[in-house]
TrEMBL record:
Origin species: Falsiruegeria mediterranea M17
InterPro entries in alphabetical order: 3'-5'_exonuclease_dom, HRDC-like_sf, HRDC_dom, HRDC_dom_sf, RNase_D, RNase_D-like, RNaseH-like_sf, RNaseH_sf
Cellular component aspect of the GO annotation: cytoplasm
Gene: rnd_2
Domain HRDC stretches: 212-293
Protein name: Ribonuclease D
Enzymatic class: hydrolase
Length: 386
């Protein structure tokens, strides 16, 4: 196993990789103690057998620059292959404002090819490569040096098997004519907006039982302060204060340091210094917020008049269509989207793109009374009423 610790070595490998149609990529990182992921290792491989043409890249090595890798990511002649790429892409986008192009995600491709919902890498290795994986090093500290032999073996396996998995899935997509489906799915992964965390919208992730505008105004200000503090100090948001403490603060609306001392849920570190000052200022902004600026929760789906019989028929249709197409049902439409369609909503993913071809077109015909469903044995068939 070869570990690259200099920029020149990385540049040499990337030059060699650029002569091949694809390169497989994976990362190891830590995020437990930071807001942003700390990149600790990059694994790369281009076509070959076993550990041939596969390397580990140490981004923590003194003087190491990942610019040669970023340049390879920009090379559109080489497909960059990941499994469950979202967190990896977030790291590269935040660190260098670069996305791998073109991108292939084997988890997405596997769902399109009928391997089930959010299929894991280990499952694909077992089913496609007919091998097992040693996962004992999965939760180790990847920032410590030197890496153990077990860590290196585990990390390299994440890109060596990926070569065969990619080649198999790419061939299956080519045969079925579904490559475009995967391309559509990956568009959101290579959009900067996907990784743009807006502190002013952080309140939307906080679960509360209250929809009062006055209450939510304080929640919004507290959540925004927490997000901004966590980003600025690169600490997890829960290390500032947790959601249950945030909701408690929005309810009690402390006005002084002594009020903060009465909180049951607030961490000791948050009752003094910059965090306590930020909390008090955020509460005051929320309390002083005029009614016209209060947050408003989108209740459109809560008010939907769902036709339950139609929703049930749509579920039967979806099951039939996805079984026939060999595609994971949740990849087409979650249950909430079926309810939305049954309530008359049309701005749902299942009614556009490749999903429309597989399910959406007949779903609309069912809603319009143009088709019926019949059962014969285990099969459900669509019958035209026109």
């Amino acid at each position: 196993m070869k570990t690259l610790t200099t920029t020149q070595d990385l540049a040499d490998f990337c030059t060699a990789a650029a002569q091949h149609p694809y390169v497989t990529v994976d990362t190891e990182f830590l995020r437990e103690r930071t807001y942003y992921s700390k990149l600790c290792l990059v694994q790369l491989a281009y076509p070959g057998e076993g550990d041939e043409n596969a390397v580990l890249v140490d981004p923590l090595a003194e003087g190491m620059s990942l610019e040669p890798l970023h340049e390879l990511f920009r090379n559109t002649d080489v497909v960059k292959v990941f499994h469950a790429a979202r967190q990896d892409l977030e790291i590269f986008w935040i660190d260098a404002q670069v996305f791998p192009e073109p991108l292939f995600d084997t988890q997405v491709a596997a769902m399109v090819c009928g391997f089930g919902e959010q299929v894991g890498y280990e499952t694909l290795v077992r089913k496609i490569c007919k091998q097992g994986l040693d996962k004992t090093s999965r939760f180790t500290d990847w920032s410590r040096r030197p890496l153990s032999k077990a860590q290196q073996t585990y990390a390299l396996a994440d890109v060596t098997h990926l070569r065969k998995i990619y080649e198999y899935l790419a061939a299956e997509l080519e045969k079925s004519g579904r490559s475009r489906w995967v391309t559509e799915e990956l568009t959101i992964l290579t959009s900067p907006a996907t990784y743009d965390i807006r502190p002013q919208d952080a309140w939307k992730r906080v679960k509360t039982r209250t929809t009062s505008g006055k209450f939510l105004a304080v929640v919004r200000e507290l959540a925004q302060f927490r997000e901004e503090y966590a980003q600025a100090n690169n600490v997890p948001r829960n290390r500032v204060f947790k959601d249950d403490a945030l909701v408690e603060l929005a309810s009690t609306k402390p006005r002084s340091g002594s009020d903060l001392g009465n909180s049951r849920l607030l961490l000791r570190e948050a009752r003094k210094g910059a965090i306590s000052e930020g909390i008090l200022a955020a509460v005051k902004r929320g309390v002083d917020c005029p009614p016209e600026d209060h947050p408003k929760i989108d209740k459109s789906r809560d008010k939907m008049q769902v036709n339950p019989a139609l929703a049930d028929l749509l579920r039967v249709l979806l099951k039939s269509k996805t079984e026939s197409a060999g595609v994971a049902a949740k990849l087409i439409a979650p249950s909430s989207d079926l309810d939305a369609i049954a309530a008359g909503m049309r701005d749902v993913p299942a009614l556009s793109g490749w999903r429309y071809e597989v399910f959406g077109e007949d779903a609309m015909r069912l809603c319009e009374g143009e088709i019926a469903l019949t059962a014969k044995g285990q099969a459900v068939k669509v019958v035209s009423l026109g």
